[in-house]
Amino acid sequence: MTQAPSWQSFPLFQQTAQWFERAHAALLGELPCRRGCFHCCVGIFPVTVLDQQVIRFGLSKLPDSQRERIMDTAEDQVRQLTAGVPQLLSNRFMDHWPEQDCEQVIQQFSAWPCPALESDGGCAIYQFRPLVCRSMGIPQEDSGLVDGACTVQTAVPLIRLSRTIREEENRLAAREAEQLETLRDQQGAAGEEMLLPFAFMPEG
Question: Could you read off the pLDDT of 79-137 as tens digits, one per residue?
Fold first, then answer.
């Protein structure tokens, strides 16, 4: 018999949230990320089968009425997605999609709020949010160049994150890749990434 998961089954999600807090503190409050800013909660984006596990776990902890509202929104979005992109009917995974096709779908449905976004701008599954949501907001750095993480960031903080924090970011990404490979092997899944609304749906 498979043992039901507990929150302790997902340490990577807690570690990523802790990394964000350290990075946020290192930038001395220069980030706009705070409760009430939900710009990154509008628009669909890919999440992984790891994220799906945590989202489904989080949904199970909600009151029935709240969970049903979220599921109704997700189901409606999935219906519209599969109507607009018929290939999602046979395979929800998009790992091997051309980047141009991914961007086209994301742009087409860019006005959709996350199914878990509440009317007050809060997240109904904040404790159980995907990994990308936990790290979103920290400016990206590549070859010494820094880019804002979202359109709300009109200026990039002048303070650069330390090598230690960036190395930890890389270690977390490596752990995610390892866990994804393991989970995919266990599930026999056809892929790792799906558009956000699919992650709220039950398996099968």
Answer: 999 999 999 998 999 988 999 999 999 999 999 999 999 998 999 999 999 999 999 88
For 136, phi and psi rounded to 5 degrees? -65, 135
